[in-house]
Structure formats: C-alpha cells, structure tokens
Amino acid sequence: MRRPRPGDRSGIRWRMLRRRLYAAVPVLLGVVTVAFGIVHLIPGDPVQIMLGTGGAFVDPEREAALRQELRLDRPLPDQYLAFLAALFRGDLGQSLQTGEPVTALIAEAAGPSLALAGTALLLGLLLGAGGAVLGQLTGSRVLRAVLSRLPVLAMSLPAYWVATLLLQIFSFHLGLVPALGSTGPRATILPAVTLALPLAGVIAHVLGSGLRTAERESYVLMARAKGATRTRVLLRHMLRNTAVPVVTLTGTTVGSLLGGAVVAETIFGRPGLGRLIVNALQHHDYPVLQGIAAFLGVTMILISLLVDVLYTYLDPRVVSTAVWR
Amino acid sequence: MRLGIRRPVRALAIPAVAALILAGCSAPSEPSGGSATPRPGGTLTLATDSDPGCLDPHQSPAAAALLTGRGVVDSLVAQDPGNGALVPWLAESWTVDPRATAYTFTLRTGVTFSDGSPVAPAAVKANFDRIADPATKSLLAAGMLAGYTGTTVSGDRTVVVRFSRPNAGFLQAASTAFLGLQAPASFAAGPQATCRTIVGSGPFTVAEYVPQQRIALARRAGYRWAPRFAAHQGDAFLEKVVVTIASDNGVRSGSLRSGQIDAAGAVAPRDAVALEREGFPVHRREQAGIAYSLFVNSVKEPWDDVALRRAVSRAIDTAQIVKTLYQDRYTRAGSVLTPTTPGYLATSTQPTATEAARMLDAAGWPVGADGIRSRAGKRLSLRWSYVSPAREQRDLLAQLVQQQLRAVGVEVLLDPAPVGDVIASQSRGDWEMSDISFLRADADVLRTVLQSSAGGRPPIIPDGTLADALAAGAATTEPAVREDSYHRAQQRIAEQALAIPVYNPTYLLAVNKAVRGIAFDAQGLPQFYDTWVDR
Fold it and tell me: Where in the numbering of this chain does the ABC transmembrane type-1 domain appear (chain A) (predicted)?
C-alpha cells in the first residue's frame, strides 16, 4: 500500500469511513439480536400483563385470542426471523399496547429527546471545558482549588435531587420557567441543566487532569521557551492534545443522554425516548424495546464514526495509523 | 371470634368526607365570597399522575383513560354517584329478561356524536361488536361483555344485547366509559387510531393528545343530554380542559401552589395535608370497587387452616396503617368492597394483636427462639411478592404489615418485583400473600376479579359458599336479590378470612379557590362537566 502524501488526508478519511460503515453492519446485527434476546428473557408475559394490570382476572380464552392477535403464539425463532426480515425493510413492527407503528413512536419521542440531549451536551461542554480552562489559567490558588474539586461534586449530584431543586427555585418560587406541559425552548432549560451538570463534571475532571499532566510535557516547555503566552500555549497546543479523551467521552455520553434521561423526563413531564423505554419495559412491549435498541444502536454507530473522524482532525497520527491497518 | 359485625365505618371518616359522600359529591363546599352562579368559559388545567397510553376506553383498562374518556363518550345508562342507582342516559328506558341474558334498550332521540352521525341502534351494535372483536385487543371492556353473542337492531330506536350466559353486571358495566358509545365512523381507521383520539357524544371532544405530555378537551356546542343527576343541563361550562401528565407528586403540588395549574389530581395524602393547610380546597372521594386488600392463599399449607388466616387478619392494624401512611386521608376499609360500592356491607373487626397471638398459640404454632412461630421445624412465614415501583406507598405498607405480623410471630418475606413477575407467579398459583385493589362501581367485581378459574389469576381460592353467593348475584338484575347475595359474599369472605381489607383507595383532587363545581362519577374519578372557574 502506498504511503499517503501529506495533503491526501480527505481521501484517507473517506476510505476509513467506508471501512467503518461495513464493520457497522455486523455490530448492528449483534445489537438487535442481543436486544431481541434480552427483551424476551425478561420474566413475565406481555399478554398477561396487558390483561392482568390492576388485578383483573385473566380469562384464558381471551388470553389465547390476544396472543394469537399479537402473533406471540409463534415459536421464538420464527418471531426472530420475522423481526429481522421486517427490520431489513425498515419496518420495526407495531406496539403491542397501542398498535401504532414503532417507527412513528420513536420519531415522535426522538425530537424532544434530541433537543434535550443536544442542549445538555452543549451546556455540559461549555461548562466543563470552560471550568477546566479557567482552572488552568487562573492565578488564584483558591479558585483553582475550587474548580478542581467542583467536578466531583457535579458528577455525584443525583439527577432526581437536582431536578427537584431546580424546579422549586426557578419554576415554583421565581416563576421563570414552566414546570409542565411543554417542550419549547424555555421548558428545555431546566431539564438540560439537570443532565448537563454531571456531564460538565466528567468533562471538567478529565480535561482538567489532562491539562495538569500536559503542563509538564516538553512541547509545552518548548512553546513557552519560544515566547508563547500561557494562554496561547493552552489554547493552541495543550487543549488540542488533551481533547481526544474528552471527545471519546462525549461520544459515549450521547447515547445515555438520549435514552437515559428518564428521571429528567419524568420529573419535568417531557415526552422522550427514556420514558418510552420505561413504559415499554413495564408492559413488555417487545417491538418498541427492540426498535429503540436498533435506533440507539444506529445512533451510537454514527456517533462513533463521527468521533473517529474528529480524531483525524485533532491528531494527525490517527490518519497515518488508520491507513496502515 | 366476632364475625360479620356491622361497624359504622363511615363514622370513622372525617365529617367532610361523610358529607361529600352523602351529597353525592356534586356540591362541595363553596368558599365564601365567590360568585355562586356558574360562569361559562375559561380553561381548567389539571395535572394528573399517569398517561393512559391509549385514550380509547374500549381498549385501555387504565383509570387514566376514564378520566378523560368520560367527558368525551356517553353511555347507554348512567350511574348516580349519590346512591349507585342506574338511570337513563343515551337509553331512555330498558328491560332485562329474568335470566339477565337479553337487554333491550330504547334509545333517546335527537342525540348525535360530535361527528354529526346519530346515536342510532346500528351504532350501538357497531360499538359492542367492535369491543368483542379480538382485533380490537380490548383489555377490560371485552371482559365486561363476557358471553356476548351479539346485538340485534329492532326498529329505529331499539336494540337487544344478548349473552349466552347470565351477565347481571352488564347494566352497570354499560354505564362506564369502557362500554361508552363512540362514533362508528371512527372505527374504520383501526384500533390504533382511536388510541389517539376518540369521537363520542359527550360534552367534550378530544382537541389534542400528545402522549406522555398532555390531553386537551374542547367543549362541544349543542350538548343536551346530560344524565339527570348532573348539576346542570346543556353545554359544559368550561371551554377547555387541559390534562397535563406529571408523574412526580411534588411537581403536581408545586405547580398548583405556584399557580401554573388549577387542579392537581391523584394528590399524595401527605401533600393533601400541606395543601389544605395552605388553603387549597382538597376534594376527595372513596373509589368504588375492591378496597386495597391483602390475600392469604387458602390452598397453600399451612394457610388452608382458617384459624391461621383469621389470626393474621386480626394482627394487621389497619387503623395504624391509614394513620401513619395516609394521614387518615384514606379511610380504613370496612369490607373487601369500598363503602361507595352498591351492596357494601361493613364486616371488619377490631384488630387485636393479643387476640391474634392467642389464636396462633391455640392453633399449635408456638413461638421459637428467634420470635417466629414454628411447628415441626416449619416456620410460620408468608412470602409476599408485590408490584414495584409501588403506588400509594404500598411498599411502605408492606413493611408496616411485616412489622405488625412479626410482633405476633409471623414472618413475612417481602419480594418487591416488576408487575410482570407478580402477575406470572400469581397465574401459576405460586403465591402465599398478595394484594390488590380494583376500580368498579358494582359488587360483581368480586366475581370478575377475585374468582378463580384454571390458568387465571386467583387471589381468592375456590370456596363453594362464596361462589354460590357470587353466582346468585350475577344471575339477576333484581337489586334486592343482588344486595343480599353480595352481603352474603362479603360475610363469607370475612368469616373465612379470605381477604384482609386494608384501606379504601381515595381520589384526592386539590384545586385553587377559583375552581367550582367539581363532581365525581360513580367509580370515584373527578368529572368536569359541571365545573367552572370563578375568575
């Protein structure tokens, strides 16, 4: 294989992307298969839950009829193959509870989830990176000490507590934002802050300790010796070198922001993927659970691709190793 | 042991509740200084705890589907929340054959669905046929039509609904929104379409439904067929009712306090106490149906011994439970049925731990070294698998019961589990202790919910005397015969300690002072037809 010319980076990026996309197919198949297996391993039976919720007596005749109607009477391998075949056509099936197409349910919940996750991610990055950089630049020992300890606090705050506190202060007492019933920008602030705080903590922690380590690196000494200011060295050299783990971390966080925002969604009364998952779990709504797993799987694969591409911009070495693989 | 003793359970409730029940809940006390004449217009915003998932009461078994569904669909008959009597609604009159297998309804004229189509015999047939059709995947309503063989249209105002076996509970079932009438044209798009919006002949229409977020109802103009017990006739007062979903208790009460909503539904008792203190009126109504009760599996050894079951029921101090967990905002259950259920008979006895201990001694279960009773190496224990996450603090209740039974030497092994596990273990008959409550304003609920059948979910184990009494109640629509049958059934349940009634599930609705005319339906859920806002 030919060694790439220094200017040929974009071609290499495309080749790398294509290879990753091919590799994503078996990964996705694995994800949906595991999801299928896990949801069918959950103890309890959807038909009995549907008929027996609230304590009603389950009439065996109606149980059998419903099971047949939902096609849950067929052997599991058949159900699996039917699921894969439909998935291949882009059909995720229908919710057992309401009969609505799973794709429609996901599309409906994904909007508010993406808005919330996006805002939280942005806030988390700003707060986290801002805190870490400020901690590095400040001359004040006290501020530096405070900023190096805050992240651990932010990480350990339980979402339930933060959400309730934020609501009490900003909605119930100050009346600045509505507590309920909206997914508009104003109603997104508090849940986004709830999700952003622990994320900011993690980012500030990783970036902060990365920056403190980089301080002692020879390239920093070199740059300083050549007369660059502290700020310039930090922003031009150190940040770029310490950003790689932060980008990885951010990438892996997006999935949990999308599907794991259950607490924030519940307390703030927002629709979203997290509540869709919990509701589907409670009712053993297999198609919905499988559909969300497939959706989140695809999302995570796309994000990890994006992260890989970002690496190539942050660290040229990634491109050269990627091409020799 | 004294059994079947009538106790004035209502007298235990604080006077406000008693007044509310006796007044049929249609006229709560009005704060002084406000206008007494209902003022039409305005919006009521209400936060409730759960999303029905599906708005269609034909399909959904959720009480949340009734909360909004009742305002949208009317039923053939109406149940007066004051006395439980069934009165005309969309049906002007009806007759029932002596075996309770054929119901002939004569429909009221001039009634239309909100899509303009008439509430005609063919529509009644289309509704019941649809509920019974397996493709509708009805989870509760179809069970109310047990034995349904079809509806025949005879004449332009008359329908006959037929059953293959007696179904005396049908008339009351027909008064619920579960069997409410929807516009047949709305069925064409399939069951999933009516999950999103329902079309009925009620005083409100569905304006918007955003799952997990809110349901908006809009007033329908030209409504002229409210049941006669309603406080007024004609259009609803409120222009709009917006029901927001907020599952967190604190968020609902906080939103009410800060004026973001007008009413908070399903308020936790602790929050109700605080809100009352701050001057927010809290309306309450004991829900009809099966009281929250505990069941001891009477076919599992050693609990097939009635003396042991009686001892356990005497050892559980329900007065302490309602006081500590529910601040007496829920009342002690007096029977397996709640007091607002027609046919209720108070059967409960005073709990006494010393008496319970004496009964257990007499039954031959001495206390061991660790304080737990045992006989021939077998410990006297009860495994209790309950649904987690629990509502109404039932997890704490389970722990309190565990302590109370431990005090008399009975060990309770608590097993909080997801609802799927709990239902599965009960379906297998693999349970020792269980708990349920069930919403329905007819004593026939004892038969449909508690009676055993192969493969079903049997909290109560087959008992000949009980089965006879329940069958007798289900085979006639004669009120006196039914009442007598259900009294016998409740006495038998108490005598055999088949159920241990604990508390009466109670709907608590906190409102701001401007909200007037809150009413509850016979099931015990708030209704907004007579509601208006004084501002």
Answer: 110-311
Q: How far apart are CA A162 and CA B79, in angstroms?
A: 46
Amino acid at site A206 = V
Tell me what percent of the residues of chain B surpass a pLDDT of 70: 91
State pTM to two decimals: 0.84
Does A137 share its domain with A276? yes
Q: What is the ipTM of this complex?
A: 0.77
* DSSP state at residue B373: B
What's the pLDDT at B271? 94
Chain B contact for A65 (CB, 8 A cutoff): yes
pLDDT tens, B53-77?
889 999 887 778 889 999 999 999 9
Residue of B nearest to A274 (CA): B212
DSSP-derived secondary structure letter, B26: S
Residues of B in contact with A58 (CB under 8 A): 423, 427, 455-457
Q: Give the count of Cβ contacts less than 8 A between chain A and B.
A: 175
Residue, of A55 and B139, whose pLDDT is higher: B139
**Angle, vertex CA B238, rays to CA B59 and CA B268, nearest 5:** 65
* CB within 8 Å: A55 and B451: no
- Give the CATH number for residue A166: 1.10.3720.10
- Kind of pairing between the strands at B43-48 and B263-264: parallel
The mean of the pLDDT values for chain B is 88
Whether residue A150 sits in one domain with residue A260: yes
- Element containing residue A155 per DSSP (H, E): helix A141-156
Residue contact A43–B420, C-beta within 8 A: yes
Residue A50 and residue B139: Cβ atoms within 8 Å?
A: yes
Residue from the list A56, A98, A265 with its beta carbon closest to the beta carbon of B449: A56
- Choose among A275, A261, A277: nearest CA to A163: A261
